[in-house]
Amino acid sequence: MAELTEQKDFLWEGKDKNGKPSKGVFPAKSEAVAKAELRKQGYRVTKIKVKSQSIFKKRPKAITPGDIAVFSRQLATMLKAGVPLVQSFDIVGRGNENKNMQDLLLGIKSDIEGGDRLAEALKRRPIYFDELFCNLVEAGEHAGVLETLLDKIATYKEKTESMKKKIKKALTYPIAVVVVAFIVTTILLIFVVPVFADLFKSFGADLPAFTQMVVAISEWMQDYWWIVIGIVVGSVYTFGYFKKRSRKFCHFLDRALLKLPVVGLILNKSAIARFARTLSTMSAAGVPLVDALQSVAGACGNIIYSEAVLKMREEVATGQRLQYAMSQAELFPHMVQQMVAIGEESGSIDAMLAKVADFYEEEVDNLVDNLSSLMEPIIMVILGTLVGGLVVAMYLPIFKMGAAVG
Predict the structure, then answer these.
(1) CA–CA separation, 329 and 385 (whole Å)
(2) Hey, what CATH topology would domain 65-158 get?
(3) What fold is seen in the domain 159-405?
(4) In this structure, what DSSP letter does residue 84 have?
(5) pLDDT > 90 in the chain, percent
(6) What is the pLDDT of the chain when averaged over all its residues?
(7) What element of type H or E holds 279?
(8) Which of 51, 154, 218, 312 fits a 20 to 30 Å CA distance from 289?
(9) Distances in Å between the alpha carbon of 35 and those of 5, 10, 39, 47?
(10) Parallel, antiparallel, or unpaired: how do β-strands 44-50 and 21-28 relate?
(11) Which residues contact 133 (CB under 8 A, 6 or more apart)?
(12) Hey, where are the domains in the chain?
């Protein structure tokens, strides 16, 4: 298997065939490779080292699921045009602007040239190609319709990534605004409120209760701001730690998220859409239902739905109909169950599931738009309460003194 190693630039010095001093920069994956290649070219290397890179140099971008979707579409187009598989990888790989993606595709090309089937080469890179992707490619190779399956994979990837982006956008916006509001409030409490507090002390007048409370919070923040930072950083670290390592915590978190108003509805419908889209794609590829459900479980994006699908798989493996197994899971709406039942009766379950996926993807789009519209006034209320409350607290004593003078 070809190693996915990034090339480095080596500065070297030595002598050419005629004994004249020479030096230059040679790109290679290792020092040994650089020396060997220079020796082939007739140079005797006396000194070589890795060229130091500027910290401001643009680094290659990480490979994203979107990159994999684009690659799938490009490869399907090449194969449909009659271009051989190895040549297709060479064209798509060398034409990719992302250096990491280029190395990945050329590495797969090298494996295929070495005798591996495409599915085998992809399975060696599970970070980028999941079980679902590999199973569909394998089914396409066995049936001789690889280009058709790659086209279906590209469509599937594009739709799922589009849905993920919309959900992330809907959730990121309010979180970002709340974080900014927290930072602004903290700055006001630590730096602005103390200025007013000193001013009020010089007047020697009694402060309103609301102002006294804000000044007390400000004094506490000035003395114990490090506790607040510690709690925030500790909470973020603890959340990330348990989310990666504790299945029980993930189970609790996913169940709690599904019960949230509006957000929970979006996550429920998106999980159903992913379930339907993935199972439709695999059914259309001719993958047996029991095998397909194994891959579908990992594509739902929610551990509650993943566990339910795995349980459905066990029931289907014992001879139960999929529609009955779905009804036992108590997660899928009656409409989805009926569509699956019709698909099972008519032998067109892939088409029925595709219609279900289309419907729920549109539902998610509408809910995300509604959530964005709903969050804007709520965010304005939060910001107005926090910042406006501090402003009112600081100006209350001024208004009180003005009334007393008047």
Answers:
(1) 43
(2) Receptor-associated Protein (1.20.81)
(3) Receptor-associated Protein (1.20.81)
(4) -
(5) 5
(6) 82
(7) helix 263-284
(8) 154
(9) 17, 10, 6, 10
(10) unpaired
(11) 68, 122, 153
(12) 8-50, 65-158, 159-405
